[in-house]
Design goal:
CATH class of the largest domain: Alpha Beta
CATH architecture of the largest domain: 3-Layer(aba) Sandwich
Protein name: Branched-chain amino acid transport system ATP-binding protein
Radius of gyration: 19 Å
Pfam families: ABC_tran (PF00005), BCA_ABC_TP_C (PF12399)
Number of strands: 10
Strand order of the largest sheet: 6-7-8-3-9-10
GO biological process, one term: L-alanine transport
Bound molecules: adenosine-5'-triphosphate, magnesium ion
Number of helices: 10
Largest sheet: 6 strands, mixed
GO molecular function, one term: L-phenylalanine transmembrane transporter activity
Shape: globular
CATH topology of the largest domain: Rossmann fold
Helix content: 25-40%
Number of domains: 2
Order of helices and strands: EEEHEEHEHHHHEHEHEEHH
Distance between the termini: 29 Å
CATH superfamily of the largest domain: P-loop containing nucleotide triphosphate hydrolases
Keywords: ATP-binding, Nucleotide-binding, Transport
Structural class: alpha/beta
Length: about 260
């Protein structure tokens, strides 16, 4: 069995009187595609916001295992940029790109979190800075090719078709070389053709060894891509298991009453 890379214990998040996350346990294993599903308002995005340092959880623990460094890192309470440095990268439910920057620049920004040249280099452009900059550009080209956006690299992000903007967000996240990639509804708003392309891309990224945790409403996508699925309702985990187990789980069927689980 593969190793755990993310471990979450008893995560709870209160907003005033609203308990958006209620004692949630979840783990992600190295190399797997895990999915987090649940009805609207279940707390899925809140969970990502807690993982990535946008929200400070009311209770609970978040650990990231960096086996390559022989480290167990507690992410709770860290600022978003620190969380990214440790190896969690994400995309957003509502696309967040730099619209007036080029596609290439949007990816380069993701990469800059791994280099020291960014801040200092803005003032003193020495040979080391230039070399790092060249490496960043080269890597960004590779990633853009991977996600199929090379032909757009000099276009402003805002001018890309919608599906391509979503893929650019994934490219920017990949540029941080994450241990775990978090995708919040990557297929939202996509047409069927774009969705198929996205499924292929996610599969390809996973084949490269990238561990992925994705939130998604498209059941067909979730069922076909995921190794394991976690189901939330009202801030609580109500089920977890392989797609075929989740499809038959009575609690899940009840939570999705009126919706297609076995799409
Ligand atoms: N910053 C906030 N302040 C107050 N309440 C919040 C905040 N963020 C989320 N909530 C509440 O927490 C609950 C969970 O919201 P969340 O956005 O995490 O759900 P979700 O599962 O991602 O839903 P969707 O599928 O619609 O994206 C909701 O009741 C929401 O109103
Ligand atoms: Mg959400």
């Amino acid at each position: 069995m593969s190793e755990t890379i993310l471990e979450v214990h008893g995560l709870t998040m209160d907003f005033g009187g609203v308990r958006a996350l209620n004692n949630l346990d979840l783990d992600v294993r190295s190399g797997e595609i895990a999915a987090l599903i649940g009805p609207n308002g279940a707390g899925k995005t809140t969970f990502f916001n807690c993982l990535t340092g946008l929200y400070l959880p009311t209770k609970g623990d978040i650990f990231l295992y960096r086996r390559d460094k022989d480290k167990k890192i507690s992410l709770k309470g860290l600022k978003p940029n620190k969380v990214t440095e440790h190896g969690l990268a994400r995309t957003f439910q509502n696309i967040r790109l730099f619209p007036m920057m080029t596609v290439l620049e949007n990816v380069m920004i993701g990469r800059h979190c791994r280099t020291k040249a960014f801040v200092i280099g803005a003032f003193f452009r020495g040979p080391r800075t230039r070399r790092e900059e060249e490496e960043i550009i080269e890597m960004s080209h590779r990633i853009l090719e991977k996600v199929g956006l090379s032909r757009f690299e000099n276009d402003f992000a805002m001018n890309l078709p919608y599906g391509a903007q979503r893929r650019l967000e994934i490219a920017r996240a990949l540029a941080t070389e994450p241990v775990l990639l978090l995708l919040d509804e990557p297929a939202a708003g996509m047409n069927p053709y774009e969705t198929i392309e996205l499924v292929n891309l996610i599969q390809e990224i996973a084949t490269d060894g990238q561990s992925i945790l994705l939130i998604e409403h498209d059941m067909k996508l979730v069922m076909s891509l995921s190794d394991r699925i976690f189901v939330m309702d009202y801030g609580k985990k109500i089920a977890q298991g392989r797609p075929e187990e989740i499809r038959l789980n009575p609690a899940v069927i009840t939570a999705y009453l009126g919706e297609e689980v076995d799409a």
